[in-house]
Amino acid sequence: MALKETLKEDMKTAFKAGDTVARTTLSMVLATIQNRELEKRAKLMKAGSVSEAEVAEQAMLTDEETLDAISSEIKKRRDSIAQYEAAGRAELAAGESAEVAVLMKYLPEQLTEEAVRALITEAIAATGASGAADMGRVMGAVAPKTKGKFDGSRVNQLVKEMLQ
Questions:
Q1: How far is the C-alpha of 109 from the C-alpha of 99, rounded, in Å?
Q2: 87 band by pLDDT with thresholds 50, 70 and 90
Q3: Full DSSP string of 80-125
Q4: Closest by alpha carbon to 6, among 59, 72, 18, 14?
Q5: Which residues of 12-28 are buried (b: 16+ CB within 10 A; e: fewer)?
């Protein structure tokens, strides 16, 4: 079953169970996915080189693109949590944390920090990086391996630390 279909089924289950946090969170993610599909469709229509039926089929997001949408929503919520905590709004931060917990179920198994450090060490050795000027090459090697499995901003921090 495609990830989008899993999200829809889980939203129905949450609705029947009365789980408002899961229902609203999944509803927002599905709306984001639909918006991305509409954007993709508009780009394909603008290109004009394919038929209407092909556009409809190609506009559907792949599971990888759906994971990107989920990761983006998690990042937005984590940013909100930081802002709410800085403003002393613990109740709003808790609500965002609950939404993150719902969304994390759909991401692949997350990497540990030690595993990411090992990947960075390998990338530094493979690219011959020796300082901060080589950060782009190291990130280029590490990012595809950690995408969706570890927070990208944290990967960036770790690469900076290890190159200094």
A1: 18
A2: very high
A3: HHHHHHHTT-HHHHHHHHHHHHHHHTTSPPPPPHHHHHHHHHHHHH
A4: 14
A5: eebeeeebeebbbbbee
Pick the CATH number of 113-163 from 3.40.309.10, 1.10.3720.10, 1.10.10.410, 3.10.300.10: 1.10.10.410
Which residue is listed with tokens 């290109």? 47
Q: Is the pLDDT reported for residue 47 higher than 80? A: no
- pLDDT number for residue 1: 64
Q: What superfamily in CATH does domain 3-104 come from?
A: Uncharacterised protein YqeY/AIM41, N-terminal domain (1.10.1510.10)
